[in-house]
Design a protein that fits this description.
Four copies of one chain form a homotetramer.
Chain A: E1 2-5, H1 11-23, E2 27-32, E3 37-42, H2 50-54, E4 59-63, E5 83-84, E6 90-91, E7 97-101, H3 108-120, E8 125-127, H4 145-158, E9 162-166, E10 180-183, H5 191-198, E11 204-207, H6 214-226, E12 232-236, H7 254-261, E13 266-268, H8 270-274, H9 277-289, E14 294-298, H10 316-329, H11 339-342
Helix pairs in contact in A: 3-4, 3-10, 5-6, 9-10
Amino acid sequence: MIVILKKTAERQQVELFENWLRSMGLELHKSVGENHTIIGLVGDTSRVDMESILALDIVETVKRIQEPYKNANRKFHEEDTVITLANGAQIGGGRFLVMAGPCSVETEEQIISVAQSVKAAGAQVLRGGAFKPRTSPYAFQGLHEEGIRLLLKAREATGLPIVTEIMDAKHLPLFEDIDMIQVGARNMQNFELLKELGKLRKPVLIKRGMANTLQELLMSAEYVMAGGNEQVILCERGIRTFETATRNTMDLSVIPVLHQLTHLPVVVDPSHATGRWELVAPMALAATASGADGLMIEVHNDPEHALCDGPQSLRPDRFAGMMEKVWAIQPYADRSFSSAVAFS
Amino acid sequence: MIVILKKTAERQQVELFENWLRSMGLELHKSVGENHTIIGLVGDTSRVDMESILALDIVETVKRIQEPYKNANRKFHEEDTVITLANGAQIGGGRFLVMAGPCSVETEEQIISVAQSVKAAGAQVLRGGAFKPRTSPYAFQGLHEEGIRLLLKAREATGLPIVTEIMDAKHLPLFEDIDMIQVGARNMQNFELLKELGKLRKPVLIKRGMANTLQELLMSAEYVMAGGNEQVILCERGIRTFETATRNTMDLSVIPVLHQLTHLPVVVDPSHATGRWELVAPMALAATASGADGLMIEVHNDPEHALCDGPQSLRPDRFAGMMEKVWAIQPYADRSFSSAVAFS
Amino acid sequence: MIVILKKTAERQQVELFENWLRSMGLELHKSVGENHTIIGLVGDTSRVDMESILALDIVETVKRIQEPYKNANRKFHEEDTVITLANGAQIGGGRFLVMAGPCSVETEEQIISVAQSVKAAGAQVLRGGAFKPRTSPYAFQGLHEEGIRLLLKAREATGLPIVTEIMDAKHLPLFEDIDMIQVGARNMQNFELLKELGKLRKPVLIKRGMANTLQELLMSAEYVMAGGNEQVILCERGIRTFETATRNTMDLSVIPVLHQLTHLPVVVDPSHATGRWELVAPMALAATASGADGLMIEVHNDPEHALCDGPQSLRPDRFAGMMEKVWAIQPYADRSFSSAVAFS
Amino acid sequence: MIVILKKTAERQQVELFENWLRSMGLELHKSVGENHTIIGLVGDTSRVDMESILALDIVETVKRIQEPYKNANRKFHEEDTVITLANGAQIGGGRFLVMAGPCSVETEEQIISVAQSVKAAGAQVLRGGAFKPRTSPYAFQGLHEEGIRLLLKAREATGLPIVTEIMDAKHLPLFEDIDMIQVGARNMQNFELLKELGKLRKPVLIKRGMANTLQELLMSAEYVMAGGNEQVILCERGIRTFETATRNTMDLSVIPVLHQLTHLPVVVDPSHATGRWELVAPMALAATASGADGLMIEVHNDPEHALCDGPQSLRPDRFAGMMEKVWAIQPYADRSFSSAVAFS
């Protein structure tokens, strides 16, 4: 951490400040310039609150050099995290995982039929929503308990592990048999929920909020990991920008950037990012080529009658066509930041 | 609602679609152009799901004319909502309410001392955080129950009603004696929490999320109002943009725009929006001049040692100086959208 | 075009308005609802000014159905535009073009050496800046005439056609022998410059401005095409968002979206979009997979001493490594919107 | 400037780097930490190119402490710049200037009539467009020379000085008699144009680009000032964000922030920022209260038939009503950053 003092800072105040810093066990390196004094802090600065320092009248600016996350930080954990699911499917460190299924679970026939289709096309995990965050209180909000039950039926029928979204920690008992729990973009900073998920020992997939920086996404992962749950997967699903041609702007450069900053697997959800099924395949291929560890894709056997998000769902045949290209491209993907390449 | 059909839409499909629309009790008005067919839907379209229609192959685009919110809509409720607190202070319809206090409750002395200062300067409500949403799991997260207890002590000492933030519905029992419950920006779309707050009959202040549109803010108000709780206050606290000179970009045009769209009171929090105390007074005055119904301001008797958000807190004397200007400007504020002016 | 009238619109005003619309040769289709009257305008609405209509007191909102661009519109020109350069290289309709070279031309040795390297790695066009738009008046602004001269020398030495940026129409005489003229992001809406480029009959590459929508990009292409110059290439180079982990946010979904809207070729510049050389290869591969028609890449033989934009330049060996993967991925790219697939 | 070296930097490379920095006349202050080495550079760093340093393999990050602008910097020029026009009207240092008039000059009657109205309501400068930047090549682009001629006629008739927009330096001869030259948002980084305006000795009003930071705005002012023209006025007119309820998002916190960073006057254009006339008055009052040095307002005697931007133009009577409130509020505006308050 670097602190830059104002030109006008009085000597006495500066000394008090320096003593306070030393009392926290930090070593100080000072450079006195004509217009500014620079203090470099050496030691464990993760407990030093930047805001408190910035509030001091004598301080002009503060810059953190060390990232504020530890468990998620590639610097302290060079090897890629690899997560293994019940069916043996893996993600991370070069293993590519495809999760697919409908936006919402609707009926037993629907979910089993879609599960069979996506399995046939190569998906290793079934996704499907039982609890749906909807902007409008008047919109369909999911089948809840019944939806979870149907997902487990589809797992029974196909062997595919299940990933589904949780909206409130009070529903956790219902998720006991679920293989992977998803935190939606709107809940990325629902810190009470993240703390509860940190107590579990099963994979948690966290979607980046629409206005959240990568550092904030990593801090949310840190909330889960600080509780001892190290199986976290990060998911890009588009951010809010001025452009309205797509629902959100899919920020694919996060893939190599996150691989540099963290050892956690990174996946992409092009269905929600673009909001239009015609854009899903090109964006899924792009994500694959850029080194993503996996994909999350909406597939529906009858998108025209889907209870939500129909326009962004692929039909099973289109999904299968896309998957062929994904497998063709994946071996050529850029993996320069993976542990195998970058650190061994 | 207007639906525009593709040039290539086949007659049979169009007929099926039209029958389906009529079955929902809607009247259809059709214009056949060279390149497009336009269908205007007349009737109650609030239950028609735009997404489902957009998913149809024959549909090019859909446009909603009627807003998807009803309880919060000025069109169906012309009079400004006026909310009255225990001490008789009011907000809405020309009554201006100032809420002030520290970011976090720290000690009994601190909260009572700040409460007395802000009351003396004219604030009618005491704000203070007991549950603090913090990006980092390692940062101070508030005093929780103890914080609530200290807030109630400060109310006892000064008579000021209390507004404080809730982070999870499971904490609701602790908020029983609190006068106004705040939903933070990160929880604006925590729909499970909003539903619970809809069951109460006390004022709820909802902060706009950093990437949320005004329509989404109104839909979140609608979640609370749909439960029967009509005492909702909307709060602008800055949005995320590319500009980094301030923490967030305070979007003041929301004040007249919201006054046009809704009858609910609108307040502004310039402390969180700007993140810098020197900008709080100019932005508070600006908000007042543009017709805001109130302000929420961070005041701390010792910002240099505040446990959080010190750099954005005003000292009591500066707050008092600002308040004098607020009272001078408020009578000249633009109120062209208030019910008194616009509708009576 | 659809016009929605206010509930309060008086009959007489509405009639005057309708007559005015009919006087422009438009056919009117009217639907009278309980709360709104909808008028559908049929005919050539490209000359109807939406703003004028929106200014009318009786109008609530206006929506354009037809795009405001014609020459660039896929609807009126189904076949992909294919552009052929002096060396026979082509772009568009499935032909993939790679443009590479240094940010700035510095010396004869530098530009010839880089040109030879990028040619050896498979680039078909040499890029290099002679006029450099720099945020600071005190920064290196390019070699100007001398830079153009050196680029032409490099063309002589390697046979590679040249693309370079123009900053003001008054410099056009210097660009007479240049093969492709680039309009930078900051000049995307320098309409006087675009009009002058419309008088030429040589390829113009237009970079999307950092805050410009796709429709605005297409309107800028329309400025050039309206002058009779149909050889326009569109280039995505990142937009401004709240995320600061990369210089700009590269918006790759523009590739399929633009292919749907226009027949013009679309390329991507990952060097400027990300600002960091380590991200160039993953983003170039992603762009290729998503169906881009080409790439523009910064390559420098000595990035550590480059006069500008060093951090984003690849070394020739890294560029060559990246190109091998580009050629492996390109055949599997999504081309569902190209004319061959979509329209024949 | 602070340079942070990587942990892996080799000693020999570091020494070479340090010698190079010293050769530029800089003094070095070094702090060696466990994970990083920090070098503080003392001396004139305005010629040191951050990008070149960042390109070095041994460098992790660089931070500029001193701003890259000098002429526009409050630190080197504490007194507010005050600009005086031909009619004696002034702006800056507490003098408030109102510029008003139509979007486009249309006819002699129109421009003289509007000029008389805005003068009567207290405006001291007439604005009006002769050259109009339009997104579409098919839209009305202004009366050009004829427009300039009519503006000068209106000046003759009313005594009001004229401000009007330039789009290309080649038109400069036509602007010889114009009192203040406006650079539009789309040309804020048309550096060739800015350099030409630096050669003049008359006021230049620069509008902030829709995606430009305050630092970039100040660098554009620096381009003009570096040429010797010190009469620069900065203008906020809204930035691009995800919110679509208003045309752009007006960023009012720029007023106090710019007053802190620079001595140049700052004005606001609420007409273009919001795009809707009903929002102009509230936003103009807000800007006034926050300490703006002036306003630029669109006024039209017949907005329903304006050739451009009708929906955002005020009628003269509404403008007059707004001006009364502006004068009432202005004495209470926050001026804490003006030279009189902050530095004397």
